[in-house]
Amino acid sequence: MSDSDLPHLNYLNENELMEMDTFIHRIDSTEVIYQPRRKRAKLIGKYLMGDLLGEGSYGKVKEMLDSETLCRRAVKILKKKKLRRIPNGEANVKKEIQLLRRLQHKNVIQLVDVLYNEEKQKIYPLA
């Protein structure tokens, strides 16, 4: 392959590089200030999504705020796709929801609501 076969490449000469110096500035990493992006509020039903409380093999547990009563709740977010990979995963979750609905005890969490997002295939049992 000869030089004429190669596509034409433009290289910057030294003068052009010096002119570009006005556009490109080197800074020390200590000068960089990290500012995390603010998350948008996520509303699911009447509940406002909060911070992550924990994570397990079945899903994540997040804090939620009931917008009507202003009570703090915990929600276990379960993905159907993930449950299908766990042996008896879907059956275990259905059983847990049935048991928590019937169970009334001061030392056991109380199931308040169960939400299901068909589009995202997510189950939200609220305690």
Radius of gyration: 27 Å
Q: Strand portion, in percent?
A: 25-35%
What number is the mean pLDDT? Answer: 80
H and E string: HEEEEHHEE
Helix content: 10-25%
Question: What are the segments in which pLDDT stays under 50 over at least 5 consecutive residues?
Answer: none
Strand order of the largest sheet: 1-2-3-4-6-5
The rough form would be described as: elongated
How many distinct beta strands?
A: 6
> Ends: how far apart?
71 Å
Q: Helical stretch count?
A: 3
Please summarize the sheet with the most strands: 6 strands, antiparallel
Return the structural class.
Answer: alpha+beta
Domain Protein kinase: 47-127
GO molecular function: kinase activity
Cofactor: Mg(2+); Mn(2+)
Organism: Ameca splendens
Task: Tell me what the structure shows.
- The protein is of the alpha+beta class and 127 residues long.
- The protein has three helices and six strands, in the order H-E-E-E-E-H-H-E-E.
- The protein has helices at 14-20, 80-85, 89-102, and strands at residues 43-44, 47-55, 59-66, 72-79, 113-117, 122-126.
- The protein has a six-stranded antiparallel beta sheet with strand order 1-2-3-4-6-5.
- The longest helix is centred in the C-terminal third of the chain and has 14 residues, at 89-102.
- The protein is elongated, with a radius of gyration of 27 Å.
- This is non-specific serine/threonine protein kinase.
- Residues 47-127 form the Protein kinase domain.
- Pfam families: Pkinase (PF00069).
